[in-house]
Design goal:
- Its EC number is 4.2.1.17.
- Keywords: Fatty acid metabolism, Lipid metabolism, Lyase.
- The chain is of the alpha/beta class and 258 residues long.
- Helices cover 47% and strands 16% of the residues.
- It has helices at 30-45, 67-70, 75-81, 85-92, 109-116, 146-151, 153-162, 168-174, 186-198, 202-217, 220-233, 238-248, and strands at residues 6-11, 14-19, 51-55, 60-62, 98-102, 105-107, 119-123, 127-129, 165-167, 179-181.
- Strands 1-2-3-5-7-10 form a 6-stranded mixed β-sheet, with helices on both faces. Strands 4-6-8-9 form a 4-stranded mixed β-sheet.
- A hairpin with a 2-residue loop joins strand 1 (6-11) and strand 2.
- The structure holds acetoacetyl-coenzyme A.
- Acetoacetyl-coenzyme A is lined by residues 24-25, 27, 63-68, 84, 105, 107-109, 112, 131-132, 135, 139-141, 143.
């Protein structure tokens, strides 16, 4: 499908989605969010795709929701249209792993979009922030919720209340990002991680994603039970037999997602 605000490429089982509104630092307007939601759903449906990488440009992953699009809206407008909800729900429904590769600004909705992904690999140029407070509003798609779970209350309060930016080194130290690499190496690192994931059984990687995400939504006791039962259920797959046989036979496994 042809898109105007994103570029989508599928190669070697990895779907690369690049946000592409360079004149607006990839600000998230209605068209971009809708195209992104469609591309994410298509990647979920596409049997060739086993992992997704979401990225922006060297200067900006995304500088937030499009302020010019939102400025004239009223409460009734955003409430009735449920601004950003259908699109973020669509991204949340993707069961295949999604990596955010972030260089430059990831602010407001941009930081929140990165946090919707399963993990974030950052360039050393990355800057994260929830500066909505400077606009007389607050974060609206996860900046007070996911950020708090990722970096804790004190830092999340600091980021949301002051609107300050966090550099890549602090983001890694705080647990917001999983790795920081020199900017030139960002895409190699993210695509390399995606390739590694794409080599595994898709049943395993989707089960792992579901299980880790469960930890956000339940007690430890329930989460451990959920994990154990999913672990047990993987013994019903051919990929479990293949993976364990390959280990014993000292060869690479040939997973078939069954
Ligand atoms: N919305 C719309 N346009 C944006 C934008 C945004 N969030 N961020 C940048 N742009 C546009 C600028 O208006 C500018 O366009 P023009 O050339 O037409 O004037 C262009 O992108 C380049 O931006 P700057 O000239 O400002 O670039 P800079 O390098 O001087 O500054 C920046 C970069 C610090 C990121 C600055 O652009 C900035 O502060 N942007 C806004 C960040 C922000 O407040 N984000 C939160 C948005 S609200 C939100 O996201 C709500 C939510 O939770 C869902």
């Amino acid at each position: 499908m042809a898109y105007e605000t994103i570029i989508v490429e599928v190669e070697d089982h990895v779907c690369l989605i690049k946000l592409n509104r360079p004149d607006a630092l990839n600000a998230l307007n209605a068209q971009l969010m809708s195209e992104l939601a469609k591309a994410a759903s298509e990647a979920q449906e596409n049997e060739k795709v086993r992992c997704i990488v979401l990225t922006g440009s060297e200067k900006a992953f995304a500088a937030g929701a499009d302020i010019k699009m939102m400025s004239s809206k009223s409460f009734a407008d955003v409430f009735s249209e449920d601004l950003f909800t259908p699109e973020t729900d669509a991204i949340g429904r993707v069961r295949k792993p999604i990596i955010a590769a972030v260089a430059g600004y990831a602010l407001g909705g941009g930081c929140e979009l990165a946090m919707m992904c399963d993990f974030i690999i950052a360039a050393d140029t990355a800057k994260f922030g929830q500066p909505e407070v400077n606009l007389g509003v607050m974060a609206g798609i996860g900046g007070t919720q996911r950020l708090t779970r990722l970096i804790g209350k004190s830092k999340a309060m600091d980021m949301n209340l002051t609107g300050r930016f966090m550099d890549a080194e602090e983001a890694e130290r705080s647990g917001l990002v999983s790795r920081v690499v020199p900017a030139k190496k960002l895409m190699d690192e993210a695509m390399g991680a995606a390739q590694k994931i794409a080599e595994k059984s898709l049943i395993s990687t989707m089960a792992i994603k579901e299980s880790v995400n469960r930890s956000y939504e339940t007690t430890l006791r329930e989460g451990l039970l959920f994990e154990r039962r999913v672990f047990h259920s993987l013994f019903a797959t051919e990929d479990q037999k293949e993976g364990m046989a390959a280990f014993a036979e000292k060869r690479e496994p040939q997973f078939r997602d069954r």
